[in-house]
Amino acid sequence: MRTGESIFSLFMVLLCAAYLFFSQKIDIGTMNEPGAGFMPVVIGVVGLLISSIILINSLKDQIVKRTETISAVGMKRFIGCAAASILFIPVFDVLGTVVAVFALVLAMTKILGEQGWARPIFLAAASSAIAYVLFIMILDVTLPLGIF
Amino acid sequence: MEVFSNLAQGFAVAMSVDNLLACFIGVLIGTIVGVLPGIGPVGAMALLLPFSFGMDTGASLIMLAGIYYGSMYGGSTTSILLNVPGEAASVVTCLDGYQMAKKGRAGAALAVAGIGSWIAGTVGILLLMLFAPPLGQAALSFGPPEYFAISVVGMLLLSNLSGDSFLKSFLIFTVGMMISTIGIDAVTGYNRLSFGVLELTRGIDFLPVAMGLFGMAEVFAIAVEPYKVGDMIKVKFRELYPSRQELKKSVWPIIRGSFIGFPVGLIPGPAAILSSLISYRVEKGLSRRPEEFGKGAIEGVAGPESANNAASAGAMVPLLALGIPFAPATAVLLGGLMIHGVAPGPTFITGHAELFWLVIASMYIGNFMLLILNLPLVGVFASLTKVPPKTLIPIVTAIMFIGTYSLNNSLFDIGVLLFFGLLGFLLKYLCYSATPLLVGLVLGPVFEKGLRQGLIMADGNFLFFLQRPISGTLLGIAALIIIWTIYSGMKKQKLIDNCD
Description:
The complex is a heterodimer.
Chain A: H1 2-23, E1 29-30, E2 33-34, H2 38-60, H3 72-95, H4 97-111, H5 118-138
Antiparallel strand pairs in A: 1-2
Helix pairs in contact in A: 1-2, 3-4, 4-5
Chain B: H1 2-14, H2 17-35, H3 41-48, H4 57-82, H5 91-102, H6 106-139, H7 144-161, H8 166-180, E1 183-184, E2 191-192, H9 198-201, H10 206-224, H11 244-266, H12 271-286, H13 299-314, H14 316-322, H15 328-339, H16 347-351, H17 353-374, H18 378-383, H19 389-408, H20 411-429, H21 435-457, H22 463-467, H23 469-499
Antiparallel strand pairs in B: 1-2
Helix pairs in contact in B: 1-17, 2-4, 2-17, 3-4, 3-10, 3-15, 4-5, 4-6, 4-13, 4-15, 4-17, 5-6, 5-13, 6-11, 6-13, 6-14, 6-17, 7-8, 7-21, 7-23, 8-21, 10-19, 10-20, 10-21, 11-12, 11-13, 12-13, 19-20
């Protein structure tokens, strides 16, 4: 956790530094007429300062805090769900709502540990049918229909 | 007298079929969301907001508000019957509620939680009704320096009260403000930090961020460690009756909880959780038998459950009177107002009086509906937790994606949802609170507008902010908060050094 926190703190320092770098290119204006860059520069400076303090503290911190570790199985589930979620976007765009919802629900149900295929397929099919009827037909929400 | 005539008019409109239905759907969903671990009211509200586009403005707000205060009722059910808090604000109820259930007093605990929630909710709405209009009236004289000062105090209080570290929460708040600067600057029209990406030109919409931080992040957290629900303690309808002794012991905790919760709801931060914690400590401190707390003391259920309901009403005051949301849930309500073309702010209560009083009246009705729903149907709601996460989570995820897309018909928004979902999960894992990020995103424009316009008014002289009575007082409070934070941090460090 200490390592994770230090890495995150370092990332925040870099993020704030980058934000400040790009912000100072915008016209800051003057004190009696602040420009578009005024607020980003102020926030960037404050962010950089705070994140630096946190980074220094995390490197100096001798107390090992109790932390929740992620099990290997949990990590696999997380990666699987994240991948399924990311893949949803192109599938949704190209193949449409029905196929995308079916694939997402099927994938996530299996990733989260559902045994067998009958129940996940039924759940996925029911979800995509309900999504089509509810959102497209009843609520009249504009969604990609893709191959349908 | 004008207050009551306005309220009567609000009731007249609220009793229409559409509005009653919207209220019922809102409180029902809120109760379900409160019961189910992992999915909180903010995620549910953000999820349903796009689908409320086609609804009337009043009905939409009634439904969303119903989800918010309805979830406070639902959370206590699983805390008492399963020792699993359905909602963060009900964590404290587990301490004594579940112990009462183990002793065969689950019905009494549920009844007292329900009655206390109803009374406190009603008191909270009454106070909201009495405080919000005059505050809104006073806020008409607020200028940019006052809004800047309110944002500063809000930022500092939120950072102090969220998470376990002031600096971490403050940093996350700053990140939220950074995100709010992306897009076209409202004053000069300059395109800031969009890097040529067309979608970034219109800025980052806060709804996908809200859904990501509070919805998708929970999905990932549950994927890593699915919640397990043990055997539920069964309770029959006829057992839903506390003894005379238990009712007598509950009266003062309910009253105290109501008046603790409401002011806590006014301040930025996790108001519902804070109010229930403060109430628990107060009840334990005042009790003649504090050793009973943690072992089934009815006061440990009555007080906190009342406080969190009153806090949800208190949280509406800054939103409705000033147009400033200090909590993620009210930020989503703000989004609802803006989507329907209603400008929140001091003129909301006077300019949209019929809408304000409609929402107030519907909150009274919704609270009553919750009391009727929760007690007889408690077994039904609690059994929802038997739906395994592997079935529920994929469906919720699909709904979240569709809802996000429907905001602007944009795949980019789904990308934002996913990005902030992953970020929210990471923040959770590293013990950072995500609330400051969302509030920073919403308050950022208020802060910037107040500062820039204030400096223009003051001709660049920052002392102008201190010379105005309201902004000066608020900035003075902000300075005291900073001094106190530094002092308590140094004291804590000294204690750690002494222990070493």
